[in-house]
Amino acid sequence: MIATQPGSPAGRLTGEEAAEAQPRLPGLMRVAMIRGAIEVKQFVRQRENVIFTFSLPIILLLLFGQIFHGQVGHTGVSFRQYFIAGIIASGLMSATFVGVGASIAEDRDDGTLIRLAGTPLQPAAYFAGKAILAFVTALCEVAALLAVGVALLGLDLPATPARWFTLAWVLALGSATCSMLGIAIGVAVRSTRSAFATLNLPYLVLSFISGVYFVFSRLPSGLQHIAALFPLKWICQGLRSAFLPDRLLAAEPAHSWEHGKIALVLGLWLVASLVICVRTFRWQRQGDR
Amino acid sequence: MGAMASTAMAPASGRAARQLAVRVRGLRKQYCDTAAVAGVDLDIERGEIFALLGPNGAGKTTTIEILEGHRRRDGGEVSVLGADPAKAGRSWRARIGIVPQTQTKTGELTVREMVSHFGAYFPDPREPDEVIDAVGLTEQAGTRLRRLSGGQLRRVDVAVGIVGRPDLLFLDEPTTGFDPQARRTFWDLIAGLAGDGTTIVLTTHYLDEAAVLASRVGVLAAGRVVAAGTPADLGRTDAIATVTWQASDGPRSVRTTEPTEFVLRLAGEAGGEVPGLTVTRPSLEDRYLELISASQNGAER
Q1: What does the CA dihedral B119, B122, B127, B132 come to, rounded to 10 degrees?
Q2: Measured between alpha carbons, how far is residue B165 from residues A58, A276, B96, B169 in Å?
């Protein structure tokens, strides 16, 4: 609960009195929501940011729509339908891992962190705000991609409520994992510029080996094994399970959507990133202290 | 905590010690091989405006950042509102307001959004609109930060620093870049806050600012407090005045403790008006420059 007293008349509260009659500090959940709201508000108002984040996957989707025709094997499922999962996953990772991860370096550079450090805000609430921003961004991006995909490319939406549910939890868990992982890396880098460079490298490499641009099972098995160590492959797979019918399981290496394994791998990465964030995060850079 | 500190500035009685907002003994901070702070002692009482005065690189910001808990110290004792800033928790933070030296660059929020957002972190925040009014930005309340001038942004920083209703407010060079009018308005605001019982610690390299605002001043040079006291105390020196006049063989100048006597004699010798006569006493500024250059010479030796 937060005390929002109407402004008391000037001079009534001296330092001593205020110290004795301390109202409670606002709770973690409340502050996390406040952080989330302000993060989203700031993001939305940076027009270039919004355009950059949303246009890339949409352009990618339209390009794929032009390049790929025909079906995956003899399944009756179009390549376009197959790749929507990869494009959503790639867009999600770009917005959350790169975008949110780099935003922590931006917050450092523009003085936001040093200002927050002077308040009773807990780092956990700050991270939660970033995760909320990541989820909202991911959600908007999926909505935009689906709208374009359905309207222009004739893509099918998830067929059953169960598949919608799959879409929802994969998005939520995927965006949380990617954003926390991005922050864990973003904490360590020196400036906004190096943050983008540092984060884009793993993002691009993972995009190539995780089944974003190619049918995953057709990648060399060595690359498949490496990709399986990282979150993006599992996000792609989870999204495929939302958008593709079960007869496409033939094109999956495990011949199963492996939902349990997806949740496990993403969950492990999420916990690991959170631990790294909490352990390494300082409001100020080490050299500045 | 060292028992009875032997420093001259330390208040003797235990009761007085409880009234201290800030107590610093032997504070040291090293960057690589240079000592930024080399043994600083400070006592700042509740409700006073204390100015840390000194040239760039004197250790003002390092000192204030250690007090804020934003910087680690290498040695010495620090107590701020009864707690060690290096270990203090959130409820301590809630009683502190900070205006850092660097200006905010987050541009997409409006003034009102920024101020009320920061208020939301605190248990008992001030009304955002009252705070905005106090810093004179009511007209700009709905304007995004990136459309504000440098001076206006600085006032947003101050608004953010006080919205949490702090008992103790740190201001690090708050008026750098202000025009004279804005500086005067700002001084009124700070005096008003102090009138409400807020303890204020500010750093500045403007002497007039320290003289107008501060109840006490500590002059910092090369990481040490080279003088401390009320602005009037600091300005008052050994009553040495300088008498200058135009003699027949050119300008002359004499330093004396009895200027009246000297001028009378001079007038007698001249048999009337003494051409170009001036009598000056050292100002706070002269005293300050003297202190700074003395410490610099000391450091070079």
Answers
A1: -40
A2: 47, 34, 8, 9
Taking contacts as CB-CB distances below 8 angstroms, the residues of chain A near B97 are 118
CA–CA separation, B3 and B1 (whole Å): 6
- ipTM of the prediction: 0.80
Q: Do B127 and A120 touch (CB under 8 A)?
A: no
Q: How sure is the predictor about A15, in pLDDT bands with cuts at 50, 70 and 90? A: very low
Q: Nearest by CB to A18, from B121, B165, B192: name it.
A: B165
Nearest CA in chain B to A120: B90
B70 contacts A25? CB cut-off 8 A: no
| Other beta carbons within 10 Å of A64 | 20
Question: What's the predicted TM-score (pTM) here?
Answer: 0.80
Strands across the sheet containing B96-99: B96-99, B168-172, B199-204, B49-53, B216-221, B224-229
Residue predicted with more confidence, B217 or B295: B217
Contact flag B105-A4 (C-beta cutoff 8 Å)? no
Q: pLDDT at residue B3 above 50?
A: no
CB contact under 8 A, A34 and B117: yes
Report pLDDT digits (tens) over B142-194. Answer: 999 999 988 888 889 999 999 999 999 999 988 877 788 888 888 998 998 99
Interval A46-86: pLDDT, tens: 888 888 888 888 998 888 888 877 887 777 788 888 888 88
Instruction: Identify which of A16, A25, A41 has the shortest CB distance to residue B91.
Output: A25
Residues in chain A closer than 8 A to B72 (CB atoms): 289
Of B47, B121, B192, the CB nearest to A120: B121
